[in-house]
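Researcher: Structure prediction, please.
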Amino acid sequence: MLNPYSAQDRLEAQMAACVAAVQGEFRWLPLRDIVDPPHRQFDAALARQIALHLLVRRFDVPKRRVVELQERSREAVNRALRTVDERLSSPLFAQAYERMSAQARDLYATEIINAEAA
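Model: Predicted structure follows.
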């Protein structure tokens, strides 16, 4: 259960919301493949990059916290941010990104509301 006063719990809930929102656009991918993409499964790797981008850019989580949470190198996180930033120049991708962003925010807000009500 989420403790809304725990920074670690909030961070994990934000990451879960980002992954779930991305999975909504990448419906063919199981959540586990977004969290840990299989080797050479490029759509899963892009999905994870989008989730990390949402976490940093939309939830304002410092990159160093994402590095710790994901146990990834700083370069991997920076590469994910650059990749998604470049893709956002495509209007179609930008629309899908905005849908994922809104969904992630909604999922996280619902989780916080439920935790505070409990």
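Model: The two ends are 9 Å apart (CA to CA).
Researcher: Thanks, that helps.
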